[in-house]
Design goal:
Helices cover about 65% and strands about 15% of the residues. The chain has three helices and two strands, in the order E-E-H-H-H. A two-stranded antiparallel sheet has the order 1-2. Strand 1 and strand 2 (about 10-20) form a beta hairpin. It starts with a strand and ends with a helix.
């Protein structure tokens, strides 16, 4: 670091001069860890660890949601199979419903005509 001082020689201002108060080249000078990058490494490591923990939590939640989705899809397939079995047993089905709706619309048209 340097600081600005004024030199007075014989009572006159000669101008400004810079005097080095510390240099990194001095053998007795100890470089603090923050200048060597140790503090930055710690901060980056801490930030990465925090991000990894958040990622792990989110990944676990995603896996749980995907598992729930697969279970729901299986339940839907099973329910559709049961619906088909019940509709076959009682004589109903989508095809019969469509046919009944077509006949109803035909009867309505004939009645209106």
């Amino acid at each position: 670091m340097s600081r600005k001082i004024y030199i007075r020689k014989y009572g006159l201002d000669e101008g400004t001069a810079y005097v080095e108060t510390q240099t990194l080249l001095e053998p007795n000078n100890v470089i603090p860890s923050w200048e060597a990058g140790d503090e930055e490494k710690k901060e980056v490591s801490t930030a990465l660890a925090t991000l990894r923990k958040k990622y792990d939590v989110i990944k676990r939640e995603v896996n749980d949601k995907e598992g729930e989705l697969q279970m729901l899809e299986k339940d839907m397939k099973r329910a559709e199979g049961e619906e088909r079995a019940v509709s076959k047993d009682f004589g109903g089905g989508k095809q019969e419903e469509e046919q009944a709706e077509a006949e109803l619309s035909y009867v309505c048209e004939m009645h209106d005509f």
